[in-house]
Write a structure and sequence with these properties.
The protein has helices spanning 8-20, 32-48, 50-70. By secondary structure, the chain is an all-alpha fold.
């Protein structure tokens, strides 16, 4: 099993896919990207509990910075 820090890049990829497709404004039934993102987050919450919840906002900020620096 991977440790939490090894999951960061995949999280960022999923987050940026959602940003590119405006998936955060859609339901999981309308967007495959959001469904993948939500499923991954729920899995990490289940496995790592509070550790993931504490670091999730930092990962999201990193992904946002990278996404907007590309444009």
């Amino acid at each position: 099993m991977k440790n939490l820090s090894e999951c960061k890049e995949y999280y960022k990829d999923l987050y940026m896919d959602c940003l590119e497709n405006d998936s955060f404004e859609k339901s999981i039934f309308e967007s495959t990207e959001k469904a993948r993102y939500e499923t991954f987050c729920e899995t990490l919450k289940f496995i790592y509990c509070a550790d993931f919840e504490n670091i999730m906002s930092n990962w999201s900020n990193d992904a946002l910075k990278e996404f907007y620096s590309r444009k």
